[in-house]
Structure formats: C-alpha cells, structure tokens
User: What shape does this take?
Amino acid sequence: MSFQTIGVIGAGAWGTALAINAQRAGRDVVLWAREDDVVEAINTTQKNPKYLPDADVVGIHATSDMAEISNCDAVMAVTPAQFMRGSLELLAKTAKPGVSVMLCSKGFETKSLKMMTDVLEESIPGAIASVLSGPSFAIDVALGLPTAVTLASSNQEEGERWMSAIGRPEFRPYYSDDILGAEAGGAVKNVLAIACGIVEGKGLGRSAHAALISRGFAELTRLGVAMGGNAETLKGLCGLGDLVLTCSSAQSRNMSFGFALGQGQTVAEVLGSRTAVTEGVATAPAIAQLAKNLNVEMPICETVAEIVAERITLSQGIEALLKRPFKAED
Assistant: This one.
C-alpha cells in the first residue's frame, strides 16, 4: 500500500521541488520550514521566493510545527547534511514507531564522518530508511521536466511503496538495494563539481574538464566500494549520472562555487553572497579524512578540501595534481 500523506522536512529549493512533485503524484503534502517567512509565503502566495522563486507551490500546506510532519504516512528529509541530525532529532520527539524516512540530502556529517542513514539510525532508532539520489536540479523537477533518479532501500517492498508514492512519468525513480552506493555517489560528486567549476573559472579548457570528470569518477568509485557500496550502482544515476550533471552546468551550486573561486573570489565572498547551502564545501574535508581512514587514494577531493580550507591556493592545487607521477589508468 502506497503512502498517501507525505511530510517534507526542509523548504529549500530541493525540498520544495520534491514537495511539488509529490503533490502532482497525488499525495497530500505537508512542507516543514524553520523560517516563518517561508511558511507564510508558501501558504499565502503559493510561492517560495526565498529558495525557489520560479515555481508555483500549489496545494501544499507549509508549517513550522514538526508534529504535523509526524502525522504523515512517510517523511522526506531534505535539510542540508550538516543540519540533518538536528532536524531528525526534532522529528524524533513526535515520530511514529517505525516511521518511513527517505533521505534526500547528499553529504557526510563533517564532525562524525557519518552518512545520513547513520545519522537517522542514531536520531530515530527503528526508522525505516530509504535514499533518493541522482541527476536532478530542483527547478527541473519543480517545472515537471523529465528526470530520473535512484531510489535505494534495503527493503524492496519499502522501495516500491516510495516509487508508487512519488513516481510520475516525468519523475522516474529506479529501485536499488544499494543504500551505501547511492549515498556515497551523491556526496562525492558535490566535491568533484567544485573542482570542475575551478577548471572552468580558470579557463583550463574542455579537455581538462573531461579528464577531471573521468578521474573524479574513479575516486568516487574507489571510496564507494571501500565503504561497502557496489561499483555497478555507481555507474548508474546516483553516481556517474549525478556527477555528469553537477559537473557540467552552472546551475549546480557546487560547480558555480568552484567557478567563482576560479574567477578570483574568496571562499568567504562566495558563501556570503548565497542563501542556499553549498554542500561540497562542508563535505570536502569529511571525504578527505574518510579517504585517509580507509586508505583510499582521492587526490582531487583532497586538493579541493585544502583549497576550501584556504591552506593552499588554486595554482598550488592545480600544480600538485599535474605533477603527480604517471601511472596506469586502472
């Protein structure tokens, strides 16, 4: 039996887009936001001018009361990775036993190096976890443009319930039982997108851009497998697909962040000009440390971590990568 009422935690661009899609799929949707002005705007104007101004938010009830989310059949958690634990702990106060939670944010918790499924397990013991990942821009989903994603769950019946609840001809979820692979792919690609943005901002050419995506995918795969994911999963939508999209469009917050760095702006200047979170900035140091812990070679991601921490300059990072020893591709 499919979920009929869906609570969405997080009214940023992605959370709003997923709420719009779920409503179009025939679900009754409650959208939670921390900011009262966002809640009021959605409920009175059917718009989210702060985070997704170009989309209509029709037939969706917004709230700042987490208890309203707990009353829903299932929950989509879409707050940024570094704020996910706080949101889930708030939900835990009123959550139903065995609540179904789909994790829709991409990243690792910086302090603990844990994935969002680990954060969910610690915050709401007994919750049933699923993961949504793949090549998907919020505005494309909100406007009903064709999109395909990975919907990962260790329980196929649970996955099918979610697919039935949010799947539409224009929003195509593909089931996978590889939660670890889906999470790893979604997190690492944000860091690699920063690197691709730097390449574009510095004018290093399309050849360098293509090489970085290819070698970045090798890093993404190595880490995902070391964490217990399946290499075949990472060749799909949640790995290669998401990487190609995020590394190839200025719509990507992570790529545009890297582009601005390549154009000469500082980390503080770029982040200070944004309302939305750039996940790759917080994820980069976590991935660098995780790679070290697992003895996985990830020179591109490690270089990005050093750059965003401003321990090295862009020129130093690029030079270090180009001077690495020649080796076999595999």
Observations:
- The first strand starts at residue 5 and ends at 9.
- The mean pLDDT is 95.
